[in-house]
Design goal:
alpha+beta; 2 helices
């Protein structure tokens, strides 16, 4: 099964954003380089975990003795991106993701694979010219400053949802909330 790879080596923009009201938001990872824009849908939990793990990688790099990479401890102000998502045309929905570090280019590497037919109903698969099923994948390489800014924005986007109930911890809907406090 061939895989169509959307690759971004030095993107101009990498952000997570949402569409919809809290409680009904759809999360998107959007990448742009020049005029090429790819937008993929992912889950809120995938977004949160991605931001957490990027920060862990960067924080770990700072502690490495003899580290030759200049890893920022916070988001460089010039890399803050609070703009809305650009024209959203969902390329695919994310199934599996992986995260890594490329020391040869000093970049954080994100791989996002489309949900496969084992995960869903073939909606995210295309037919290649030879009639074989084709899956999709996003490969993004971003420098450490961009990665730090990406993680910060993603945490803010995830945290901007519905407030949590102080008793049960579940989200409070706009139309109210009924919960059963945890037993002591």
């Amino acid at each position: 099964m061939p895989t169509r790879v959307h690759e971004f080596a030095w993107p101009d923009r990498v952000v997570v954003g949402t569409i919809g009201p809290p409680g009904a938001r759809t999360f998107y990872l959007q990448v742009r380089a020049g005029t090429q824009v790819v937008t993929i849908a992912l889950e809120k939990q995938q977004s949160a975990l991605l931001a957490e793990k990027i920060d862990e990688i960067l924080d770990q790099l700072i502690t490495v003795e003899g580290n030759r990479f200049s890893v920022p401890t916070s988001t460089p102000i010039e890399l803050v991106d609070n703009d809305q998502l650009e024209d959203v045309q969902e390329q695919f929905r994310v199934g599996a993701m992986s995260l890594g570090w490329d020391p040869t280019t000093a970049q954080v590497v994100i791989e996002a694979h489309a949900i496969t037919d084992g995960d869903a109903d073939n909606n995210d698969e295309l037919l290649a010219e030879d009639g074989a099923r084709e899956t999709e994948m996003l490969l993004v390489r971003m420098p450490v400053g961009t990665a730090r800014a990406f993680a910060k924005r993603t945490r803010e986007i995830v945290g901007a949802g519905r407030p949590a109930c102080p008793l049960c911890g579940y989200p409070i809907d706009a139309d109210g909330h009924i919960c059963t406090p945890p037993e002591a």
